[in-house]
Amino acid sequence: MKIGYLGPRGTFTEAALNAMPAASGSEKEPMPSIPDVLDAVRSGNLDAGFVPVENSHEGTVNVTIDQLLHGDPLLVSAEAVHPVTFVLASSRPRGEIATVASHPHALAQVRQYLRRELPDADTVEVLSTAAGATAAETGAADACVCAPHTAEDHGLPVLDYDIGDNPGAATRFLLVRRPSAPAARTGNDVTSLAVYIRHDQVGALLNVLTAFSVRGINLTKIESRPTGEGLGRYVFLLDCTGHIEDARVGDALAALRRSGAGLRFLGSYERQWIDPPLSPLPGMTDEDYDAAQSWLDALRRTGESDR
Ligand SMILES: O=C(O)C(=O)Cc1ccccc1
């Protein structure tokens, strides 16, 4: 199995992929950008792609989300959550640092540090933290923000360790592939989907949310992105706990379908966060659904209910 990831070597994405048991034994190929990774999956050059999607403090990596929303569909088969710690690295003395290069999400997570320590330095956004290290090594930038081991690999002295504004920041990554049967249900799963609500209906978003809440399904993320059709046209990205094989999740999706909402299923996969999953509401387990279906089947056959 060949997995492409946001490279070059030394990115946080690479470190997160190497820590993933499901990826051990796979051939891993660094690619220059997130769209490069996902397009290579679409074209069949890669079996899977591994990209950052969200940071605990900086929020969503929009380029990843937009890639999943537009173009040929892709399916998420796994997620990984990985801690991120940043260093400032440079071969120049502190007083000579006029430019600092890194990935926009890394720069955003050290904003307060840079304002405090290097208030006059300009930031330079590049495609990854490892690309920032290359920029600092070649002199295209004076310094970079990257992982400690990346500074070492590029022969860059570390001027400051642990410079993140939020200790404990973590990034969530997704393993994606071309659509096929979703990952197996584990009992601790997340389902991601994009919902295109009806714009000619008042309360359309509330109806979508209600489809989840009445079935006791916990939403863990909701985010809107422009559809690209014009102002006021948004698509909603939802993450909920549960698997499409869970009766209540399948039932919620079927209800959305009946309501006329457009759906792009983005995958059901094992959840990797520390929060314990919430128990289903009474009457919402698969067993409850099965028992109610058997009761209805019998009622339709015999005309007899149980009271
Ligand atoms: O640039 C990297 O190293 C990446 O893998 C993207 C990223 C950037 C900042 C935090 C987490 C991931």
UniProtKB/TrEMBL annotation:
Pathway: Amino-acid biosynthesis; L-phenylalanine biosynthesis; phenylpyruvate from prephenate: step 1/1
Name the record gives this protein: Prephenate dehydratase
Enzyme class: lyase
Pfam family, one: PDT
NCBIfam families, A to Z: PRK11898.1 (NF008865)
Stored InterPro entries: ACT-like_dom_sf, ACT_dom, Chor_mutase/pphenate_deHydtase, Preph_deHydtase, Preph_deHydtase_CS
Domain Prephenate dehydratase per the UniProt entry, residue ranges: 2-178
Molecular function terms from GO: prephenate dehydratase activity
Domain of life the protein comes from: Bacteria
UniProt EC number: 4.2.1.51
